[in-house]
UniProtKB/TrEMBL annotation, chains A, B:
This is NAD(+) diphosphatase. Residues 244-372 form the Nudix hydrolase domain. One of its GO terms (cellular component) is cytosol. Pfam families: NUDIX, NUDIX-like, Zn_ribbon_NUD. The lineage of its organism: Eukaryota, Fungi, Dikarya, Ascomycota, Pezizomycotina. Its cofactor is Mg(2+); Zn(2+). One of its GO terms (molecular function) is NADH pyrophosphatase activity. Keywords: Hydrolase, Magnesium, Metal-binding, NAD. It catalyses: a 5'-end NAD(+)-phospho-ribonucleoside in mRNA + H2O = a 5'-end phospho-adenosine-phospho-ribonucleoside in mRNA + beta-nicotinamide D-ribonucleotide + 2 H(+).
Length: 407, 407
């Protein structure tokens, strides 16, 4: 089995050989939304014999989504249901035939709800064992009422909500612990990607969810139509458009050349006094360091020299890999100029002490009140679950640059 | 202007404040395909007044592609041409009207060759100046013969090839110096993305290249058809499917727990004795460290503990961001097992001395002969332009872990 999953401590390091590398590189930061407890057994996603057993095993659970919002017991707990509950939507066995046969029999007029095999949970007793792998299978299912399954979905939803379960009404209401957040993040990312890509970007034809939800295939024929489908190069070769998209994004705590200030910015839709680290999408043919320098210059006019990667965070809104870095301004590049890209309302340098105090009393989600110690007019910052927070904490409290610059 | 571009030294660090951070974190490695000399001025991609001036300025150059292969003077030099050469394909001014008007007037039956504004080159004399920015504009143009421009493209190609210019016949023939390689990488990545995404993945309708080649928009109407287009959520909100895709990929030199061996693998289609570091796509809801641990376990059975990011490399075949890391096996996790994912033909541990010798005499591109000092049967490794090579070099020669583990 693969390396042990994270315990439910989003900021704890991976354990066993810490002492060897952490002295040189610092401890690993496992950000919120990472740390899934599941073994993905990615190579079994095309094995219909395995998937059939996984679907029907007594240890199997399903997490449900409606319009990308998860079913909850309460804001801190994902609800799980057994196969019998979802059978009216899923059917007896969508994995009955090998994938190649499903592709050959494709009919675009038949709605199939998106079902994703997320992996095997090693923890529960009496798990499924398949070849050398064992664990309790976990699936995610889209139960949004659609097409011929509208009534079945509505019935399922009514039955669930009568049991005091409810679908989240937005991401800011969720307070999932880290391992549940990681499960949710993988499911939401994949459901969103399937929902956003029902057509082939190469030829414009409708596509079929395959590989247990991890691929979309452009079938060569469609029994719903007499006319042949256009030819498509995505069928003859591996094409990235068939696989889930993840957008690399850089986010950076920029310190001044002498290390005594931090650059933060704000958008005009944010609450008053709320700032964060700068961020933006990495572009084609850029290294992470180049993307950091370009984004900081575009948004603030500040020119960055050295860049060091701190940690990464999967961010499922909808599909980002946040690559967190610490950058340092060039001595003659600290002047703020908002005249390039009008994305930010403000960007300016803050004293380390002000950032340290804001991390102590002024952090919250964007829609929430600041904490009890916050004084009106003080700097406000993102919560602990955001990598922006971790980057700032690493600089002002964690000694990320200790011994190198005077912070 | 933004931070100075890299000089033509793919492995040199960015300069000015090296002394402060490199003592702690090591020098920055700028891998091949990064280090573009251009200022992208991304925020001007929607400014049709700027684009009009950029298209027609005397300092402007175009690099040309046919079937994604660049026009070359020789294998080490990209050919550039002026506006007058490409005018038969580009027309008088494709940026004449604001983008909103072009979208409103969309006609899917009119073929428009993909034209990409890559950025401003700060080096040449007599550059274009626009607001506070100046440089010589650089564009990339797809001249592959198509639709009503087939004859014009063929004429252009004939004229160019009669001047001893030729299109590359494949990536392994290219020996571009780093700054030209970075230009090529950005152009190839964007041209490939435009070519691979002529239809909207959300609604299946044809799309229009916008933002000077950096976006594809799903127009609300199409004058080529009487029937209305389907509604599409990509029109009402920002959707990532409209923007270039870059796939984060992890690639890792894995050292043994005691630091005296390195794990390498090979695919069966590679030349005999040729090995490389393991690699694979990062999946949704994974941190870089998690992706490294999963991929290494899937492909080799080895279980990795600590993971440290080393450097990143844009890789334009077609659209990867290679995230290079050094990982360390857990003391009880070093057994090789190829039984999970059948992707590799072999994976095994190599002594550091063998890897060091192979870096000295056994490196080459996949299609090339090994160097003169290579003895048949010895280990072969990727060339200096590959991040795999840089990772191995960092471990066995660069002292990446010096003082921490005994290498």
């Amino acid at each position: 089995m693969p390396p042990a999953a994270q315990p439910d401590l989003p900021l704890s390091p991976h354990g066993e050989i810490d002492s060897m590398l952490s002295r040189k590189f610092g401890k690993e930061v496992a950000n919120y939304f990472s740390g899934s407890p599941l073994n993905r057994v990615a190579f079994l996603r095309t094995d219909h014999t395995f998937l059939t057993q996984a679907l029907h095993h007594p240890s199997t659970t399903f997490i449900l989504f409606k319009d990308l919002n998860p079913l909850l017991k309460d804001p801190a707990t994902l609800a799980t249901v057994p196969y019998s509950t979802v059978k009216p939507l899923v059917g007896e066995n969508p994995y009955l035939t090998p994938e190649a046969e499903q592709i050959a029999a494709y009919n675009s007029s038949t709605y199939i709800p998106t079902l994703i095999f997320l992996g095997l949970d090693p923890a529960p007793p009496s798990p499924l064992t398949y070849k050398s792998h064992s664990g309790a299978p976990v699936f995610a299912l889209d139960v949004t009422p659609r097409a011929h399954l509208t009534d079945a979905s509505n019935n399922l939803i009514s039955s669930l909500t009568s049991q005091s379960l409810s679908f989240s009404t937005g991401r800011h209401n969720l307070t999932l612990p880290p391992s549940a957040a990681a499960l949710y993040a993988s499911a939401r990312h994949l459901l969103d990607w399937n929902t956003r890509n029902p057509f082939c970007a190469q030829c414009g034809s409708p596509t079929l969810s395959t590989n247990a939800g991890w691929k979309r295939t452009c079938p060569p024929s469609d029994t719903a139509f007499q006319t042949p489908r256009p030819s498509c190069v995505s069928r003859g070769a591996i094409s990235n458009i068939c696989f889930p998209r993840t957008d690399p994004t850089v986010i950076m705590a920029v310190i001044s050349a002498s290390g005594d200030k931090i650059l933060l910015g704000r958008q005009n839709r944010w609450p008053a006094h709320w700032y964060s680290t700068l961020a933006g999408f990495l572009e084609p043919a850029e290294s992470v360091e180049e993307a950091v320098r370009r984004e900081v210059w575009e948004e603030s006019g500040v020119r960055v020299g050295r860049v060091v990667v701190h940690s990464t965070q999967p961010w499922p809104y909808p599909a980002n890999l946040m690559i967190g870095a610490v950058g340092q301004a060039l001595p003659d590049g600290e002047a703020v100029d908002l005249g390039n890209d009008p994305e930010l309302e403000d960007a300016r340098w803050f004293e380390l002490a002000e950032v340290r105090e804001a991390l102590r009393v002024g952090t919250s989600g964007l829609g929430e009140e600041a904490g009890p110690g916050y004084k009106e007019g003080g700097l406000r910052l993102p919560p602990r679950t955001a990598i922006a927070h971790q980057l700032l904490d690493a600089v002002v409290n964690g000694g990320f640059l200790a011994g190198v610059v005077k912070i």
